[in-house]
Amino acid sequence: MPRGVLICGAVIIAVVLAPGLPPVRTVVITAALVPEMIGIAPAVSSMTARPTRESTTYGAPRDEMHVYLPAGARPDMALPAVVLALGVHPQPIDHPDIAGLAEAIARVGVVVGVPDSTALRNLQVTPAEPGHLADAVLALAARPEVDASRVGLAGFSAGASICLVAATDPRLAGRLAWVSAFGGYADARRLLVDVATRTTTGESGEPVDWQPDPGIRRDVLELTLNALDDAAQRVVLRELLGPIVDAETRPSTPPVPERMTGDGVALYRLFTATERSSGEAAVASLGPELLAHLDGISPTPVADMVSVPVFLLHGRPDTAIPVVHAPLLRAAIGHEVGRMTIFGRFGHGQPGSAGLGLDDAGDIIELSLFLRDIVAAATE
User: Fold this and answer.
1) CA torsion, points 119, 282, 292, 211, in degrees to nearest 10?
2) What radius of gyration, in Å, describes the C-alpha atoms of the chain?
3) Do residues 98 and 114 make contact, with C-beta atoms less than 8 angstroms apart?
4) What CATH number should be reported for the domain whose range is 3-186+299-379?
5) pLDDT tens profile 168-190
6) How confident is the model at residue 23 (pLDDT cuts 50, 70, 90)?
7) Residue 181 is inside which H or E element, if any?
């Protein structure tokens, strides 16, 4: 029997037999979505009409957003909706992978918004970004086809963290219905230490080795330098730290160049730290403005203000954001967390992108249960 058939069968059994016996429609939608999302079979596409895609703008500065409308959508239908937040350095919003995901969701009767962000595309994450994402939610909620009280947010990677901060925007009260956060970070200060020192922490808080992806190391360096006000020091730090970040082995800690001052010194010490404690001390020595910048893009400082159901998803093998951030988010958000799923084999990318085998069945079942809860939150 083909592996795809076995896995599809496991998906349906898991969704149907899970506690709570969800309504039939939720089971059917979930069982159809999962195989399509992981590339097993075009279950939704083969049974439903293709959505229409429109282009609009949102926010200030104005950015583009693609809106996917289910076939036959009318202004009086009060459909549920979701905004997809793609994170830093995202694929173009018309990329086939992004369009395919948005179309699959729209085919089951949900209006989908895929906003672009000039700032994120240029590796700039500022405290203004969550508000910009909230602008996208408001723009989608204002469409005549959408029930303004049933709009969700689904974020990936840094987009997941931005979603959680955006969820506390007072303008979304009564509009935002739920948040899904896949592979997000809990605290930007901590993530800097994780990536710069190539360590994370174990269950008891002890430092453990962790190897972030080389692209993530470069992106985090660039994101951090872009937050530094001193343009001259940005140029110097980029020249000095680029080779260190790119190297697969860490050099011995070089002395701080005399031309470095203020936050430049702290960032140099951070990205040349060979121990986690040294990295933590370097971040703690940053000036108040840069620390406020990091806190403004972190979910944990505002987690107690999240008042909608949250669904957390993370991969244990994640080489972009350590898996420890998921339980930190759950602890900070508290009772609003409806489900936290930790994959055993899937990492930071799209599940199934590296191929699938029977060893992945457990993760696929967990993904199915996760999606079942989101489908229920969005459509019931």
Assistant:
1) 40
2) 21
3) yes
4) 3.40.50.1820
5) 999 999 889 999 999 999 999 99
6) low
7) strand 176-182
Whether 148 contacts 175, CB under 8 Å: yes
- d(C-alpha 281, C-alpha 45), whole Å: 52
Please give the span between the terminal C-alpha atoms of the chain, in angstroms, as a whole number: 35
- Which one-letter amino acid corresponds to residue 339? R
Domain ranges within the chain, ordered by starting residue: 3-186+299-379, 188-295
Q: Which residues contact 310 (CB under 8 A, 6 or more apart)?
A: 164, 167, 178, 179, 180, 181, 333, 336, 337, 338
- d(CA 27, CA 53) in angstroms, rounded, equals 26
Q: What is the pTM of this model?
A: 0.89
Coil vs helix vs strand at 243: helix
The string of DSSP codes covering 286-354 is: S-HHHHHHHHHT-SGGGGGG--S-EEEEEETT-SSS-TTHHHHHHHHHGGGEEEEEEESS--SS-TTTT
pLDDT digits (tens, 9 = 90+) for 270-280: 999 989 999 99
